[in-house]
Write a sequence for this structure.
């Protein structure tokens, strides 16, 4: 009897349909729910009570230690600047807006603007030559960048200023003939200002060429192929597709170069050209107030680079339109939002509005 019963039970289990994969889970969920438990006659289990727990904020002890140490350092530096009489802030204020210093500042800005504009234009041409399929253009561009990036700017300045020793006259005419359209003495043509502009421009062009070339190469070449397949002319492909995207990679490094150029104009003092640093040197050699005059030059350089940094922020924000969904807020917009969210609420006006 027992063996026959076992055989019947096994056949019944085999003939019974298998439950669906989610059937067991559904039954378990129903069985565990308070409603199902009440329907089956079992007492529902009470929900967990978390009211007795405390919210413990995350602790960052090292962050606070670092903040305190940096704050103490900032306070110590500020206290030293304010209380040490050897800084001679009165002398700094006296010479900061002096006419000779302002004239030197104007010459520094002039050198920066002319050399920066010409350097980036020449660098753009050299970058296109470097990307050209012509072996001659590529070789000339590479050699130019190699030479001017391998020699110190000071050496270049002195070389251009003493160009008259190598070439007595500079002439323009038909090569390998005696026909001359223009001829001038080299010492007359290469003045202090011309030597400074020439040295700064050529040095800047060598670095700008690599910056622009890197920005152009950062653009996906598939976009150019797609634009060419659509029949867009080559000039419009370069100006409307490649250049706007390349500017996002070019701008940060380019502005670093311009800021470096502002400070690099100080090396023109070796030509005795009256830019800002040379003017300050002349003054402190006469008055022996070395440190205050150096502070005057430092503050003006800081002011110039700060203005350039503001321009950099807004220009980069303009060219980021195609890369981000929402443009980052400007400092003025952030300030407005801060005051709008932290403004005190007037309860009387709120009651009147209700």
């Amino acid at each position: 009897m027992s063996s026959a019963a076992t055989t019947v039970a096994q056949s019944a289990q085999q003939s019974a349909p298998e439950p669906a994969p989610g059937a067991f889970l559904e039954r378990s969920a129903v069985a565990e729910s308070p409603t199902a438990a009440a329907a089956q006659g079992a007492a529902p289990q009470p929900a967990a009570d978390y009211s007795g727990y405390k919210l413990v904020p995350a602790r960052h002890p090292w962050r606070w230690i670092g903040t305190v140490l940096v704050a103490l350092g900032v306070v110590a530096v500020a206290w030293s600047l304010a209380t040490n009489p050897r800084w001679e802030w009165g002398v700094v204020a006296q010479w900061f807006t002096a006419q000779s210093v302002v004239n030197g500042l104007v010459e520094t800005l002039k050198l920066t603007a002319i050399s920066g504009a010409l350097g980036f234009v020449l660098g753009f041409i050299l970058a296109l030559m470097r990307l050209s399929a012509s072996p001659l253009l590529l070789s000339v561009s590479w050699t130019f960048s190699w030479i001017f990036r391998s020699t110190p700017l000071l050496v270049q300045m002195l070389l251009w200023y003493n160009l008259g020793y190598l070439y007595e006259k500079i002439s323009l005419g038909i090569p390998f003939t005696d026909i001359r359209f223009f001829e001038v003495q080299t010492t007359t043509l290469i003045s202090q200002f011309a030597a400074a502009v020439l040295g700064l421009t050529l040095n800047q062009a060598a670095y700008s060429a690599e910056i622009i070339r890197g920005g152009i190469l950062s653009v996906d070449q598939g976009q150019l192929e797609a634009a060419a397949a659509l029949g867009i002319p080559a000039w419009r492909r370069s100006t409307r597709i490649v250049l706007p995207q390349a500017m996002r990679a070019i701008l940060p490094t380019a502005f670093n170069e311009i800021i470096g150029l502002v400070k690099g104009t100080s090396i023109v003092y070796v030509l005795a050209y009256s830019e800002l640093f040379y003017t300050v040197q002349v003054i402190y050699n006469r008055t022996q107030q070395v440190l205050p005059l150096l502070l005057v030059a430092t503050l003006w350089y800081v002011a110039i680079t700060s203005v350039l940094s503001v321009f950099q922020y807004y220009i980069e924000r303009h060219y980021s339109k195609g890369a981000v969904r929402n443009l980052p807020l400007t400092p003025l917009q952030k300030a407005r939002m801060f005051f709008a969210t932290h403004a005190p609420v007037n309860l009387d006006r709120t009651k009147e509005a209700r």
Notes: Residues 147 and 264 are 18 Å apart (CA to CA). Confidence is low (pLDDT under 50) at residues 1-32. Residues 99-130 form the longest helix (32 residues). The beta strands are 169-173, 180-185.
